Amino acid sequence: MSLTGRKRFLSDLSELQAVSKRGWELHGVQIKGLRSGDDEGSVEFTLIYDGDPISKPLLLITAYDQQDDAHETVSEVLENVSSSSAKPLKDTISRLVKSISSALGLCEDDDEMEEAEDDSDDDDGHASLDGEGMEIFQHKDVAHQMAALKRDFLEIVAADWKPGLMSTPPNALAAWDRRLLLPDQHLTLIISGFRGSYPPLSETGQVASGFAKIRFHVGLSDGKPSRDVVEATTRDYGLKEDERFVPEPEPAPPEFDEDDPDTWDIQEKEPTPELEPVHEPGRFDKFSLSTSLNSLLNDSLIPLIQLRVKFGIGWAGAEMLLAHHTEKQISPEMAYEYLAGHIQAVDLEERAIAHLPLDPLFRPKGAGITSINLPLVAFSYLLRRVLLCPRFCLVCHQRIQTDFVAIKPYVCEKGLCAYQFYALSFGTSIEYDIVHNPAVVDLLVSFAYASALEGQLKEELPVGIGLRVPKPSRTVGDRTFQNYMSTATQVAAFEGEPEADGLYDFDRLPIASQRGAIVDMLSKIPKVSEMRQYLLRITPASKARGRQTIRNMNDDTPAAAWTLLRWCVASCTAYIEELCTPSERVQGIETNAMYHQFRFSVGSPQAEAKFQAAVQTAMSTNSNAKKYPTLYAWHGSPLMNWHSIIRQGLHFKDIAHGRAYGNGVYFAKDGNISMSYSRAATSRWKNSELAPSTALAIAEIVNLPEKFVSTNPYFVVPEVTWISTRYLLVQSSAIQQTLKEEDSTMAIKTLTIDPKNGFVLNNKPIGIPLRIDQLDLVMQKNRKEYKEKSYDEEDLAVFKFEDNAEPPRPPPPADDWKHDPSWVEQTDYQLLSAPTQASPMSTMHLQKEFKYMMEEQRKAKSLRELGYFISPEVMGDNLFQWIVELHSFDKDLPLARDMASKKVNSLLFEIRFPPNFPHSPPFFRLIKPRLLPFLQGGGGHVTAGGSICMDLLVQDGWLPSYNIAAVLLQIRMAISSTEPRPARLAPGDDWKRAYGVHEAFEGIVLMFTVYLLRINNLQVSIERQRLMGGEYLKEPGIYYADSRAAIHRYIVPPLSRLLLDAEGGHKFALGVLKGGLGPRDQGLDDEILQVELWDKKLANPVGLAAGFDKDGEAVNSLFDLGFSWVEVGSVTPRPQEGNPRPRVFHLTQDKAVINRYGFPSKGATSVLTRLQARYASSGTTHSQNASLREGQILSINLGKNKSSPPDSLGDFLVGVRTFGPLADVLVVNVSSPNTPGLRNLQSRGMLIELLDAVKKERDALQIDRELPKVLVKIAPDLSAEELQDVAEAVRETNFDGVIVSNTTIQRPTNLKSFNRKETGGLSGPPLRTLTLKALKTIRPLLPASIPIIGCGGISTGDDALEFARAGATTVQIYTSLAYDGAGAPRRIKDEITQRLKETNLTWMDVVKEGQKGAWKKPREETVPIDTASGLTESIQEGANRLAAMGERLIEVLKEDNLQVADKIQQSIARE
To answer: Are 862 and 812 in contact (CB under 8 A)?
Structure first.
């Protein structure tokens, strides 16, 4: 009986509380803290979006209420809930969240939502394009879209895509994913992003206007997936399931135990049956290639289509062209010209491959393409890549350039591909293998374990995949051979120190320790049967999207263990399948020996083709081979070798058991001989249920023994192409193989073996089953049983559609405005950097805005009347950056006459939308043509930099309700205004010069300056407020020039982050300072800020850290900001580009930055020239400071080139020689996390060697002033022991100082920003705690005479004082400059001054207090002499010591010269 009333309510409440605890999310809104309210029948919860609460509703059974702090938009939605029809509690909450999400723009508006919900019980569950139903195509203006869809549907049906017709060997399909053989599983492609428009591509392959990002999703289904499944697949958020493997909390009752008499009365429990895979209709499941294929299609398909259409080439040629064009960063035309011959060759090669799918883009030469059927083209390309998948890398998708092509797809040799494949779980899924091939997974882990433990693992190590492991508990040396036996050598235990997280970088461990780490981690992996049971648990999320992952099973299992499990399974490129059907098994093997049989194929389908070609050649040239084409033989090898064999195949590169009978692969005719070589393993993986002890293979070989190197007593085969492995036999010491029942009366047919070359075991013949492969039988059966499913109503609506649309619109007027592609082509201008972050709400708003504008443009009777144009070909992939043309101005306007005379087609604008649009205004700027500046008689509300100066485009004048079409109209009117003066083109040819990005930025900054002056009630005239043409006069100029001005903190930094990416903002700021356009610190430093550093006196303690001015381009301007210390660099001896972009990322919510610059440097010569020019231009003939300023010092940070050997010191010595004469301080940077191997120089031995060499090089300088000080900059991630090593190295070499610290590779758990997971060094406030910890650790280890410079996370005066109290003499900032602007040093100094005056202290008072615990050299121990007796005792003790030393000396001498020692001993005796 179903529950009703209050019982139903309480039941629903209990269920939803459990869901809320696990994490309930709908349409991007989280539902937290759901519980029963204080009143009977009430429910309360909190709605959270983007980390912030937006409402705390209180629902009653018959009424509704809410708390006062709800979002204004939310309140309007909540007021309407009480009038809604009655629904169950879950449906009510879901509908409420849906309404709020729609109101906030987090999901599509749905006017029919209530009706759709009421009809939900009758829904047939079928999916549609983007889940919107085919009714979206019924509008009279888009009926042609339905016709296009019908045309494409008919083409797809005509292509006759049916399952089971892929011309690939069944064993290859099974190796890729056995589900590809199931009769009810179809390769399925879901395409999303249509947004109610069709077709998505133009005839040139360009994405048509009005489309969001088109996305592809590859999987398997039994037909058309259900609507819910499609929605779950195509969105990035949903119900968060708790996938942890948690046992029931109740204690288990006692069970029968034959060894426990107390349980003998308990009935023995029936064994619990294992869970088995369950297949439900309507699912859409990822399979082993889904992740790789999704990445390929989403990143490359549309560009490939465009290249094919443009150059008339095939898929293979387009792939080669795209790879070269992307890698070399050259135009497609240049790449095609260079590769034309190669492209033609690869296309011809591919056409020779049989059974590839039809090519919808193939056209006879000279025939054009009138339309592109995207679903058909996409599915054709998908099927082609599936068929050819072993040839391509699963990560970068490029062709694998190796001689050996595996049967299973894998990755290429690039280190990044291997890292992404294993560490980031790209490529195939091991979860599938655990569920469907558990015995194989057990076998592969056992092979790897034995290979590592026995010291055999050498080449196939899991390096380059980001593996971090605990300290290995053992070391395993290489194997040594003696008397035909091999053993692992003994190696001393590993004694290295861990990194800051307590783990070790696997790649840096000695190979003996690497093997030990593998053994340790594999021992932590659970039994395969336990992992299988966990993965077969069904949750709503796993049901919809197959998201169950093995890493969530057990928190106690280290991450490295799961990564190694994936490595064991995924790196096996052979096909191994357990044979449980008697008719498939090799006949004549003794069953009591507990041999498990596996089908075993190593080579790819192409390798098999080469083998078959060799067989055909033998049959045509040898009469015996014509009758018996092949022979079978055994190959045995110890268990430790099989990890390598299944990856590389059988070869003879290495000698394992001698080569007495020549070079080649050795095979035995009798299996008993091979078994003698398959020595039993001495130890096994402890969690193996298979417990393999020995293994041997059966191979099929081309029957040409006369061409073998030897035939007696072994076959020695010289050609690996003559060999094809067929079976693997594994002897288990634990369990017998479970066989499936089969008709025992049916005789099993076996091959007839060449009697000249028998195949036996213990002299008994062995039978090989006839090659009527079970997989072939499965395929044949599936083809016969396949029944095509009928189309659902949505699909039938497409096929039955009749185009009853209105007649086409009349053509536009003959004199209508026409778009000129050459005018907007991006050849003479640059765009702002594309934004990288945006909220879902902003994205949804912009999608609607763009769709509306494109629809208006399409409907317009005349573009001249519309006045604007957006070209889809110019629009990039980023929705937050538009290119718009304004045209067809009134002919009587001076601007229109100028444009006509110069044949200028339009004004080209860039619109840049902020991440929180529409709550903040967009940024409009004119790209070209250049207009006449205001000072020269121009107008039109365009600043000198091209940005638009209008009140509605600043925060106070902007309203979220404004739409872009209306804003464009306002801008058009402003440009058309003739008051006070009309807009005109720039004179001469200057109008051709496009506005630069920096010009626009400077213009908008000046506009905001005047805006800020106005809102602060400063008396500035209307004429000055406009700033047309950069006419900033006395008040604005003075205001801008002072670094304390609010514009430099509250406008420039956030505007920079809005308009430019992190690196672009950095370069812009540097460019402004380099050009002398930056502000100055116009305050005065109080005397209490003075710093005593070595023999120098600095004006204040605030310096600029390295990294901002890498090449010494803005030294003077940086000193003008008030820094007492400016550090240039890091500078490398030779120029280098650094790491690829993007490589710098803002963490705005954390006021932090992550960078992985990798020392981009113009090189020592360039920086030296610049510094020498600075010195020469100063007119100074001699200065005590290289800074050329009193109270300030110039520092050069020295870095290493990436191309230099990791342990070399030469780059630093070059830096000392080069910059010593021009620097007050030289900093040795051994702590950047972005240069491989650099941080290794912080180890004690290498650091002492480096610092000593640097100091000697510095001391050898011949300059006419004081030698520069030398400092070392260290990382914050060092352990206490490592910091002690650093301190000892600094003390031992008497280095001048230490900078603590560089950026960190650690990630605090409280980071909030979107980019927090980027790799690289983290700086800013989150670094402060780590830096202070390192500073407090190393300060007591160094004398006060060796100063420490604090650097890392300092953004306030209080931060600086905290560093001083911890023992820092001065501090450096960098990231705070990016967030708080040019006035950051002045503000920090003022805050320090205020705090010091409050405590009546100076900066040096605080520093000296912090140095009280500094290290002091221990005084030598002395013996107190208070009395005569004490003196006598002391003398006696000294005599005893001398006697002991003499005896030791005699012993030493005796070892070398006995006669001399005896004489000395006799002399001592006489004395």
So the answer is: yes
